[in-house]
Design brief:
By secondary structure, the chain is mostly helical. The protein has eight helices and no strands. The longest helix has 46 residues.
């Protein structure tokens, strides 16, 4: 991999990781509800899950989607349905010690890692990384490098969203304000699906 291609990929990984999407909306909400420390497993799970997804796409799963495009679109619809379910859960959540609403808890490491497999944006990121930035020469080694770099870039950029959420905790100390914030985060999570689903419709 040339230095120019490496720099271009790092920019791609940074932009796709730091911009709003399902993961970042959920991290912002988790930081506000549970704080930075309790959200760390969620963040690390995202990084590992995305790294494994990139590896899987690079080592053969991407070819399956090229041969059966309907399967890829079906996966994105399933992911979108699950995200709507998560948005509902966020909107209904109360504070961790709240008696109003449902007692909440942050995503675990394994839940966050598994979520990447139904996260439409994560699939777009993984497929884009492999098809655009991975040279064919020494392909397997390049796939390993791309996956590792994605995880390294992804984790610190996500921490920005978690930290932003945790800084809002004092402002969200009233149950009514926290409930309004969670509803807002749920709506933003739903809104983050629009570009992805519009892309699916354009492909049909």
């Amino acid at each position: 991999m040339t230095a120019e291609l490496l720099i271009a990929f790092i920019v791609f990984a940074f932009v796709t990781s730091v911009t709003p999407g399902p993961n970042n909306m959920m991290l912002l909400a988790s930081g506000a509800n549970f704080g930075l420390r309790r959200t760390l497993p969620h963040m690390l799970g995202i990084s590992l899950g995305l790294m494994l997804l990139v590896l899987s796409v690079g080592l053969g799963l991407g070819q399956l989607f090229e041969q059966v495009p309907l399967l890829y679109n079906l996966l994105r619809y399933v992911g979108a349905a699950y995200l709507l379910y998560l948005a509902w859960k966020i909107a209904q959540a109360g504070a961790p010690d709240s008696r109003e609403g449902k007692r909440g808890k942050p995503f675990s490491f394994l839940q966050a890692a598994a979520f990447q497999w139904v996260n439409p944006k994560a699939w777009i990121m993984a497929i884009g990384a492999i098809t655009t930035y991975t040279p064919q020469d020494d392909f397997v080694i390049n796939v390993l490098c791309i996956a590792a770099l994605f995880a390294l870039v992804n984790c610190p950029t996500m921490s920005v969203w978690t930290l932003a959420g945790s800084l809002l905790r004092n402002w969200l100390d009233k149950p009514q304000v926290l409930r309004g914030f969670n509803i807002g985060m749920a709506l933003l999570l739903v809104a983050s699906l629009y570009p992805i689903m519009a892309d699916v419709k354009g492909a049909l």
